[in-house]
Amino acid sequence: MTAAEAGLGATGLARGLAVTLRTMTRRAATRQYPDVPPDLPPRSRGVIALFEENCTVCMLCARECPDWCIYIDSHKETVEVAGGRARQRNVLDRFGIDFALCMYCGICIEVCPFDALFWSPEFEYAEYDMADLTHERDRLREWMWTVPPPPALDPAGQPAKEVAAAAKAAEVAGGGGATERPAERPADRAVERATERPAERPADRAAERATERPADRPADRPAERATERPR
After folding, report:
1. For each of the chain's 231 residues, which pLDDT tens digit applies?
2. What are the start-end ranges of the H helices in 38-136?
3. 65 lies in which domain range?
4. Would you list the DSSP string of 33-50?
């Protein structure tokens, strides 16, 4: 080992010890988990919670799941409607998610048309057996109460289409129905009639017929044949 290499080694050792001494004087920032819970971001993806009342068993989430980790069973029930014919509706029997297969992509939450699935920040659901990671609807509903409220809307943003449609319908209902077209006055009808195209008179039709090409007479056809070029 040369003197230059020895000097580089000593310099590196001194720098490392300096970093160690500076760190020893600082207070440790280690979170004592599980005694101290971690501060999670507001949109953390922990588990998927189920709001059972909104589920219509449309099976869209199970079909779109790339891992096929959603299991749904249901049956049909007949509902009697007063003054109308009986209808059938789907009743949810089982809704389970295998979190051993789930990759937390969130596709099932995005495609749900009735807002029955939500992200929950809950992450403490470890099990000793992998088979126990398939959680049924009772456990998924318990996680529903840990879902944080949605963020507040931007006051300067445009309202949702549903809100705008409901406000417009309420405004129309409060104003006595849809705005009707005002009744036409006699003066308006006279102006419309004056601007209309006048009806064709018999004299005009006769003039148009006179300007049309006359039909070929039988005497003209032999003359045309005579002027044709022989084959």
Report:
1. 676 666 667 788 888 888 888 888 888 778 888 888 888 887 788 999 999 999 999 999 999 999 999 999 999 998 888 888 888 889 999 999 999 999 999 999 999 999 999 999 999 898 999 999 999 999 999 999 999 888 787 888 888 788 888 888 998 887 654 444 545 555 556 556 655 555 555 555 655 665 555 555 555 555 555 555 555
2. 60-64, 107-111
3. 48-144
4. TTTS-----TT---EEEE
Q: Is 51 exposed, middle or buried (0-12, 13-18, 19+ CB in 10 A)?
A: middle
Question: Token pair of 180, please?
Answer: 């009707």
Number of domains in the chain: 1
Q: What is the value of pTM for the model shown?
A: 0.56
Do the domain assignments include residue 196?
Answer: no
CATH of the domain at 82: 3.30.70.3270
